[in-house]
DNA sequence: ATAGCTGCAAAACGTTTGCACTAGT
DNA sequence: ACTAGTGCAAACGTTTTGCAGCTAT
C-alpha cells in the first residue's frame, strides 16, 4: 500500500477546507490556497482533493451541470444536504434530526463507505424570482 | 410560461429511457435513439434530457468524474441507488425496504422536489481486483 | 404566423494526465 | 536514495451554445 506524505500543499488544502463556511469547488479552493502557497497548481488541488475524498476525510457533492463541491467532515459530525436545483446552493441538514437509514437490500458484497441523503428542490431565493 | 412541444425527438428519447434496463449516459442514449432517428444530434439529446429532468419525469445520477446517468421514474415506483466508487456501476434499491425519510429541518421555504438516498462504496467486482 | 425545437459545429467547462523536477521520508 | 508529490501545460470527455433553418401549434 502507498505511503502518504504530509506535504505543505496537502496541509494547506485541508486547512482551507476545514475553515470554509461554504461548500466550495476546486477553483475556489485553489484561489484560497494560493494566498498561502502562490505557486500551487490547480492540478495539485484536484489530486489532493481526490486523495482526501478517497481517505474519507472530506466528501464530494456532485450537482448536475456544475462543478463538484467539497465538504470537510467536521469531527465526524455527520450531516446531509439540501441542494437547490436553480442556483446550486447547498444547505446543511443536521443528521441527528434524521432517523438512521436501515440496512437495505444492497448487492451482496457491496462495501458501503458513505451514505448520503440529499433533498433536491428550489430554494426560497430561486422560487421568488420565477415567473 | 413556455409551451412544451411533443416532437418525435422527445418521444424517442423518452421511449429509449423507458425501455432501458440500465442507467445510461447521454452518449448511450444518443446511440440508441439514432436507430429510430438517425439524424438526431447529441445536443438535442442533452436538451431533451435536461427538460425531462426539470419536469421530474426522469432523474439524474451524478457520479464523480463520470458522465451523468439518467433514470426513468417508472410509474412512481421509487427506488434509491448504490453507486460503486470504482467502476461507477449503479444498483437499484427498492425504496419500499427503506423507512420513509422524516421531515428534517430544511431551510424555510425550500421546496423539495426529490429525495435521494445513495449508498456509495465498492462493488464486489471492484473489491476483488484490488490489492 | 410565430415561437419552440432541431442539427450542426464550435466552444466552454471541469477535470485529468504526461512529463521533468522537487521534496518528504 | 528512493519515490510520492508537484507545477506546468496540453489534452480529454462531457456538456453547452450560437446560429440558420425547420416544425408543431
Keywords for this entry:
Dna Ligase, domain 1; homodimer; 3-stranded mixed beta sheet; DNA-binding; Arc Repressor Mutant, subunit A; globular
Topology:
Two copies of one chain form a homodimer.
Chain A: H1 8-19, H2 26-33, H3 42-55, E1 58-61, E2 69-72, E3 79-84, E4 90-94, E5 111-122, H4 124-128
Parallel strand pairs in A: 3-5
Antiparallel strand pairs in A: 1-2, 3-4
Helix pairs in contact in A: 1-2, 1-3, 2-3
Chain A binds a DNA duplex (25 and 25 nucleotides) through helix 3.
* CATH domain class name of the largest domain in chain A: Mainly Alpha
* Strand-residue proportion of chain A: 15-25%
Helix content of chain A: 25-40%
Q: Indicate the low-confidence ranges of chain A by residue numbers.
A: none
Number of helices of chain A: 4
Shape designation of chain A: globular
Biggest sheet layout of chain A? 3 strands, mixed
CATH second-level architecture of the largest domain in chain A: Orthogonal Bundle
Care to count the β-strands of chain A? 5
Find the biggest chain interface.
A-B, 41 and 42 residues
In round numbers, the mean pLDDT of chain A is 86
Question: What is the CATH superfamily classification of the largest domain in chain A?
Answer: Winged helix-like DNA-binding domain superfamily/Winged helix DNA-binding domain
Based on CA atoms alone, the radius of gyration of chain A comes out at 17 Å
Keywords (chains A, B): DNA-binding, Metal-binding, Repressor, Transcription, Transcription regulation, Zinc
Binding site for Zn(2+) (chains A, B): 84, 87, 123, 126
InterPro entries (chains A, B): FUR, Fur_C, WH-like_DNA-bd_sf, WH_DNA-bd_sf
Protein name (chains A, B): Ferric uptake regulator, Fur family
Amino acid at each position: 500500500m502507498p505511503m502518504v506524505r504530509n506535504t505543505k500543499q496537502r496541509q494547506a488544502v485541508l486547512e482551507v477546507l476545514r475553515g470554509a463556511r461554504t461548500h466550495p469547488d476546486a477553483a475556489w479552493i485553489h484561489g484560497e490556497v494560493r494566498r498561502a502557497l502562490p505557486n500551487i497548481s490547480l492540478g495539485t488541488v484536484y489530486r489532493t482533493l481526490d486523495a482526501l475524498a478517497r481517505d474519507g476525510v472530506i466528501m464530494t457533492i456532485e450537482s448536475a451541470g456544475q462543478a463538484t463541491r467539497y465538504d470537510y467532515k467536521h469531527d465526524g459530525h455527520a450531516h446531509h444536504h439540501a441542494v437547490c436545483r436553480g442556483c446550486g446552493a447547498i444547505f446543511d441538514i443536521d443528521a441527528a434530526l434524521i432517523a438512521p437509514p436501515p440496512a437495505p437490500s444492497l448487492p451482496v458484497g457491496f462495501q458501503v463507505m458513505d451514505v448520503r441523503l440529499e433533498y433536491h428542490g428550489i430554494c426560497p431565493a430561486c422560487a421568488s424570482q420565477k415567473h
